[in-house]
Amino acid sequence: MECLGVSSGENLQALSALLSSQLEKEEDEDCNNATGCAQLGPGQIGPPPKKDKEVSSAYTKTTSKDIWSEEEVIEGSQYDDLADPRPQPEYEIILKQNVGTQDLFLGLSRKDPSSMCCEAMLVKIKLPDTKATDVFLDTKEKFLDLRTPKYKLGLHLPHPIQSQEGKAQFFSDRQELEVTLLMKRPMDFINMQ
Q: Where is the PIH1D1/2/3 CS-like domain (predicted)?
């Protein structure tokens, strides 16, 4: 009993003829012998694939009207001022958490030393030869902007903060600015229970 389905040679050739705009001469032959039918497969259905030019690994100019590519744009560059020649001061970011004796000795509040349990972020910025009156400081949710006559710092913060909460203190003897920022913890009601 012979089943005439899509898998028979004549049906595949008929389907290929319907889908293809160009038929090669080899496909026009009858598929009576086994070697001719063995060469026919799913890759022969439809138009032949277009052969693209080889793309070299070197930079290739595209024909689009874009004036820059995505690789050229630095993430967070909306805050950067590339024309400003002032150097970036040394800084350090320290994550802080409020810990009591019940946390330290008994472990009652389920806090651990990970950043998930931290409530605040301390940013220490060394500003030699700078007065407290010369410092301009602005904080956004994920960005700290500090400018003095000698230094500028555009710092992308590792965690979102509450930009209206926090404090800054300048230590003249160490010539260091300490900025304490409270972190946004929207999932604390789940994580800390």
A: 88-182
- Residue 76 pLDDT grade (very low, low, confident, very high; cuts 50, 70, 90): low
H helices of the chain, in order, are: 9-19, 25-28, 34-38, 101, 188-191
What are 167's strand-pairing partners? 180
* Residues composing the chain: 193
Phi-psi domain of 28 (left: phi exceeds 0; alpha: psi -120 through 50; beta: other): alpha
pLDDT at 25: 45
Q: How does the average pLDDT of the chain come out, rounded? A: 75
Q: Which domains does the chain have, with CATH numbers?
A: 9-44 (no CATH), 91-191 (2.60.40.790)
Give the distance from CA 83 to its chain's centroid: 26
Distance CA 26, CA 36 (A): 9
Whether residue 132 contacts residue 170, with contact meaning beta carbons closer than 8 Å, is answered with: yes
- The answer, yes or no, to whether residue 171 has pLDDT greater than 70, is yes
